[in-house]
Design goal:
The chain is of the alpha+beta class and 509 residues long. The chain has four domains: 103 residues, Uridine Diphospho-n-acetylenolpyruvylglucosamine Reductase, domain 2, CATH 3.30.43.10; 116 residues, 2-Layer Sandwich (Uridine Diphospho-n-acetylenolpyruvylglucosamine Reductase, domain 3), CATH 3.30.465.10; 111 residues, Alpha-Beta Plaits; 93 residues, 2-Layer Sandwich (Alpha-Beta Plaits), CATH 3.30.70.2740. Helix content is 35%, strand content 19%. It has 20 helices and 16 strands. The strands form three sheets. It has a seven-stranded antiparallel β-sheet with strand order 13-10-12-11-15-16-14, sandwiched between helices. The protein has a five-stranded antiparallel β-sheet with strand order 5-6-9-7-8. A hairpin with a 5-residue loop joins strand 7 and strand 8. Helix 12 packs antiparallel against helix 14. The protein is globular and about 75 Å long. The protein starts with a helix and ends in a 13-residue tail after the last helix. Homodimer. Keywords: FAD, Flavoprotein, Oxidoreductase, Peroxisome. This is D-2-hydroxyglutarate dehydrogenase, mitochondrial. One of its GO terms (cellular component) is peroxisome. GO terms for molecular function: (R)-2-hydroxyglutarate dehydrogenase activity; FAD binding.
Length: 509
């Protein structure tokens, strides 16, 4: 059946008015999440409260059209994409240059005003929105592509460039981004770098620590740190760029990035396979590594409930007619179609002869590839259509990749839970575990945390594989980091941001 499927597939002006957040007004909007400070009982830090003198400075620096103070407009910067955390900032600044970012931070540091750097606001751990009334620094207007070196394969751009826009730009010159995310249409490259985002191509191209050749960042006191190297080899002293990659805006604000970009592949194939048990999933990955080798670019696991959610919530269609307990999506990317198809055919034949898969389809047709990938990329969206979603991003040894999901189903059996599901990047051990409830449920939350992090730690896994620590996981960092490492992180924070103004309440408590 799979062979037949393969053959078929191939034929603004703002008023300067500083208002406190109105709880009653927000309460009347049913889609508004509860204030983070209230839900999680957070105490505000020793920061100044913004006033007219601060407003006057910001307006003088940026002009009123790039200083947002209208409460309704500010709310879109206060609420995260998942709608699970909410701050109460009443000023959003939109710089257009590194010099403006520097001036903003220097002033805020002198005035003891806390700031929250924000990129595309697609983060999933509450790291990109304020907790209280921090000044939001939106990077969206710093969106210029500075240079493209086709021979060296290097792109230099500002931090506010949208990931998908960079992908489209590179495609025109035969290159591609080393990172691919479901949120690529709205996430910004500076945020990707600041969170060390993983995504769908990490198996092939590695994480951003290996693909960022250089960057520029502004520290809390306004100093511009120029590490804008475009060489692939530079072994001169400390690799300071790594301080900012994954620091989530707590050590500095990334303003420019130099990225190593691979050549655009000439031949792409996608296989979508269905099977009845997780043991078959592991066997598929083992064979994929040995048979597909250098052309294997992605290997994703999706469970049955996740596919059902995408079909019911978004109207998407599964490429397979029958339902299966597990699905594996495999992508190959190479430079020679006949060579890649031969390797893929050998791989698929071994799967079928060994009875490892129950059904499958494979295609090299771009429209069908896009349709299959849409099913995977929109999983998070489908599961947030209704109710509240407890979302966890962990990495564990491959034999335990899916083990947490049935454990949680049993643990939450007597609670008002809509579903527990899991999907993720099988190729790098990163599973996304989702628990859906009609509304935020304190009892369910207490059953999940810290249990999930304790479970992960016992397996010697990581409590955050790619989404970062943000606000949501700050108090659980010790499950993945030794106290000696946490102490060093705190020392770095005190050294680089002694007043603690950069993205407070995030990463380290």
């Amino acid at each position: 059946m799979m062979q037949a499927a393969r053959r078929a597939a191939q034929t603004v002006g703002s008023r300067t008015k500083w208002l406190s957040l109105s709880g009653s007004r927000l309460a009347s909007q049913k889609t508004q999440p509860e204030l983070t400070a209230v839900r999680y009982k957070v105490e505000r830090g020793p920061y100044a409260v913004i006033g007219d003198a601060h407003a006057s400075f910001f307006n003088g620096l940026l002009g009123p059209e790039r200083v947002i103070t209208e409460p309704d407009e500010c709310d879109s910067y206060n609420i995260d994409w998942l709608r699970i955390v909410k701050g109460s900032s009443r000023v959003v600044l939109k710089p257009k240059s590194t010099e403006e970012v520097s001036a903003i931070l220097r002033y805020c540091n002198e005035q003891r005003l806390a700031v929250c750097p924000q990129s595309g606001n697609t983060g999933l751990v509450g790291g990109s929105v304020p907790v209280f009334d921090e000044v939001v620094i939106s990077m969206r207007l710093m969106n210029q592509i500075i240079s493209t070196d086709e021979l060296a394969g290097v792109l230099v751009c500002e931090a506010g460039c949208v990931l998908q826009s960079l992908e489209e730009h590179l495609t025109r010159v035969g290159m591609m981004m080393p990172i691919d995310l479901g949120a690529k249409g709205s996430c910004l490259i500076g945020g990707n770098v600041s969170t060390n985002a993983g995504g769908l191509r990490l198996l092939r191209y590695g994480n951003l620590h290996g693909n960022v050749l250089g960057l520029e960042a502004v520290t809390a006191n306004g100093n511009v740190i120029d590490c804008m190297n475009t060489l692939k080899k530079d072994n001169t002293g400390y690799h300071l760029k790594h301080l900012f990659i994954g620091s989530e805006g707590t050590l500095g604000v990334v303003t420019k990035v130099a990225l190593q970009c691979p050549t655009l592949p000439k031949a792409i194939n996608v296989a979508f396979l269905g099977m009845k048990n997780f043991e078959s999933v592991l066997e598929i990955y083992r064979l994929a590594k040995s048979e597909l080798g250098e052309i294997l670019s992605s290997c994703e696991l999706i469970d049955r409930i996740s596919v059902e959610n995408s079909k019911s919530a978004l109207g998407l269609r599964s490429p397979l007619s029958d339902e299966h307990d597990f699905y594996v999506l495999i992508e190959t990317a190479g430079s020679h179609l006949a060579h890649d198809e031969e390797k893929l055919e050998t791989f698929l034949t071994k799967l079928m002869d060994g009875g490892i898969v129950d059904d499958g389809t494979v295609t090299s047709e771009p429209s069908k590839i896009k349709s299959i990938w849409e099913l995977r990329e929109r999983l998070a969206e489908s599961q947030t259509k209704e109710g509240y979603l407890f979302k966890y991003d962990i990495s564990v040894p491959l034999p335990h990749f899916y083990s947490l999901v049935p454990v949680l189903r049993e643990r939450l059996r007597d609670y008002n839970v809509r579903f527990v599901t899991g999907f993720g990047h099988l190729g790098d051990g990163n599973v996304h575990v989702q628990v859906s409830t009609p509304d935020f449920d304190e009892e369910v939350n207490a059953k999940l945390e810290p249990f999930i992090f304790e479970y992960t730690a016992k397996l010697h896994g990581s409590i955050s594989a790619e989404h970062g620590i943000g606000f949501k996981k700050a108090k659980y960092l010790h499950y993945s980091k030794d106290q000696s490492a946490i102490d060093l992180m705190k020392l770095m924070k005190r050294t680089m941001d002694p007043n603690g103004i950069l993205n407070p309440y995030k990463v380290i408590c």
